[in-house]
Amino acid sequence: MPEGKLCNKKPVSTREELDALLADSNGRQYYAEMEQLDVDSDALWATIQKTMKSRLKTWLEICAHCGLCADSCFLYTVNEKDPTQVPSYKIQSTLGEIVRRKGKVSNEFMRMCMDTAWSKCTCCNRCGTYCPYGIDMGVMFSYLRGLLHSQGFVPWELKIGSGMHRLFRAQMDVTVEDFVDTCQWMVEEAQEEWPCLEIPIDKEDADIVYMINAREAKHYPEDIVEAAILFHIAGENWTMPSVGWEMTSLAMFAGDWEACKMQVETIYSAMERLRPKRMVATECGHAYRATVIEGPYWAGRPDGKPPVECIHYVEWVAEALETGKLKIDPTKKIKEPVTVQDSCNYVRNAGLRECTRIIMKHIAEDFREMAPCKEHNYCCGGGGGFNGIGRYRKQRNIALKMKREQILATGAKLVVAPCHNCWDAIRDLEEEYQIGIKWSFLKPLLIKMVEVPPHLRPEE
Amino acid sequence: MYALLTGPLLWFSFAVFFIGLGVRVVLYFRGLDWRLDRVAYTTQLPYGLKGAWRSVYKWLIPFGTHSWREKPVFTLAFFVFHIGLVVVPLFLEGHVVMIRNGIGLSWPTLPQGLADFLAIAAFLAGVGIGIRRFALPEVRILTDFKDVALLVLTLTLLASGIMAARHTESYMTWLTLHVLCGHVVLLAAPFTKLAHIALFFCTRIQLGMDFGIKRGGMKTNFDW
């Protein structure tokens, strides 16, 4: 069968196609069709010839097979040092083999590549920082994902995810109306306690435009209102766009580069329309990476920068605490041992290692570092899409073990996770292994301990 | 045979080595693409150069990076092996004399005792690296024929050089073998993994620029 009804080389382009995929329970039909999907070897080889230049070609060719990448990979460690989990082996036996065979590979081989690319690598880029040549297997796996996506070999959830971005410019089916209604409704509820609170939508020339992860609008809108309260207390002149408010990119996890471009261009046009001084991104790692680090290149911006200065939420909080915009009540600081999860996407890939330490200095009495930490920290265990793919749940649960050991070694009872993906992984970790920890974003913690200026205090 | 190998053929091998590696370096940098690699190489050049420099020098220092510090024994073997392979051929008296006779250029030389020591240490380190390759499952799974062949070639080059320097009865045999291996190394370098002699710097510069420009280098230096 050249192409299936659900599993094929075409990205989702209509609501009907998306609904058909969503109706397929656990992707059963989708994966059954995948077993019959033809590989278009000519197209695959043509793409490789067009897109695989110096960097990737040389990386594949000069790898000295020294094995220094092995121990840098948490998946190798938690899988009992299985040699097939050595990063170099994983990429050589998949992408390397496709290149050696000039794209002439079988359906079965492509499915093996899919399993490897999405269940044996979270694109955390840690191996790249341990290789003497600087060969970044995370970057190569991301490239391989793009090749696999173009041939239809992509996990069911990510086909849906990038389809959502194509149709709704959000990883979930949240329309402009849904989003604006959610903000209004949340603010109305909160106004009982915070009389002058607002979520200004589409305000031009504000100091800050705040952008989020669609899950906040869809599943926990209290996160949006918490952000609003903290901006309110800090006296920020801020806004959110009605269109272009969603920063995440499941399309990036899926390797759907066209959808990545569509998504990020929507965000950048919101920036250009509203002309804020800068953008503050919510507590999410991959959203920040997609919009701020990779996005400019998808959008073809030669300076590698988004249209306005963009900062992550941890940067805004650190700045607000240091400048006194937010003041912490010393009696309400966190007393119990607490640690922080450094998200790969804003620590290793965006240089934000100090902000969280500044924040912890202000809010915690007993802060404990994980080992290793900062840019050498391990992935939460669920990055790169791993968290959301049912087919690989078993492997993902094994992957959580590294974070379990790291957290247990700190003795911390609370893990601050300013990243949606890490937050999910740590929640699942507690559910799976029950090590007796709590986990939290920064916003709810800050709201509990921040001093409210007298004029903003609710009337008794 | 020896006269031929150290005569015109030697200059031919040198030419292949230098021109070949030069071409590879030029092709490497010409093939970088800011859109495909997603790194603003030229528009953010100052950040890129700073990142590149840090990426190269940190990795050239023994124990200079987290990776080197995590594997101290391998790191030691690695540096001893490479120092022997780079420093001895460049500064050995016999080699410098040969260059001077050939093209008139000359530079200071190593005392013979130190050269011997470095060469023997490099040989032993190389043997250690070879044993590691087969002893550790995570390295064995990656190892192929070419990896072994290159290591054997390099070890033969070192061993024959060490033996030739001892001026035993079989001096000429060792010397001829040594020169022959030298030719193979020079000729193979641009076309095999030996190209890392030059490409190591290229890929390290590239990743250094990546981290210097894009992955946080404008805010903090990456702690290699």
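qc> The longest helix of chain A spans residues 257-274.
qc> done
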